[in-house]
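Lab notebook, bench 4. Continuing the backlog of folding jobs that were queued last week. Each job is logged with the same field layout so the records can be merged later without manual cleanup. Today's entry covers Isochorismatase family protein, a 235-residue chain. Filled in by technician R.K.

JOB TYPE: sequence-to-structure
TARGET: Isochorismatase family protein
LENGTH: 235
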Amino acid sequence: MTSRGWERFLSERDKEHDKLRGKQELAGFGEKPALVLIDIYYSVLGLEREELFESMKTWPGSTGLEGWEAVDKTAELLAVARENQIPVFHVKGMDNIIKPWIHRKRGPSTMSPEMRKKGMEIVDEVKPIKGEIVIEKSAPSGFQGTPLSFQLVSLGIDTVIVCGETTSGCIRASVVDGATQRFKMGVVEEGVFDRTESSHWMNLYDMHQKYADVVGVEYAKEYFQRIGAAKKVTI
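JOB STATUS: finished
OUTPUT FIELD FOLLOWS
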């Protein structure tokens, strides 16, 4: 189902522990899913498809080609969601936040105001269409301080499938908050991305063990198609 790429980052002790206590099968999804895309904007990808370190020369927060690969897989899933009338939400960081949540030193910015504005735009490959809700956030989690939960509850959503970035940051924060609110959470392995491999894979592992089902994009597509087919039968 998934590549389980996190295995190469586990110690022998971790692997033995996983055999004894690790998650053996999926917890499962419900019958009313939504697709939530988190922070898929140009500032974390760049305007051109470039290798990580080349892209970082212009966009310091870039995730490079791995990010673009995840965007392409997300676009595939997004198309299936739309075809099957799965509700889609786009969540992005709020522009011009007074105090950012990231606690790290930042060098002087060489970006023009125009570039910074462009950086906050959702990329064309997954840009919202009419009827899809865009929610801005001022914290890592898509749930914290936003109407996302209210919107999901109003639609009777029981399952939230997420794609976006970063796996170790805003994706994880959103997944933990979603699980805390008792939504069934799903993370699409090929649809999430990060700046460092170890953070990406170990956070996928941890979310899969505790808060979500980490599934492959083909699994997620089939799930949406099954839900869509069931809708057609009841109409």
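OBSERVATION: The longest helix spans residues 64-83.
SIGNED: R.K.
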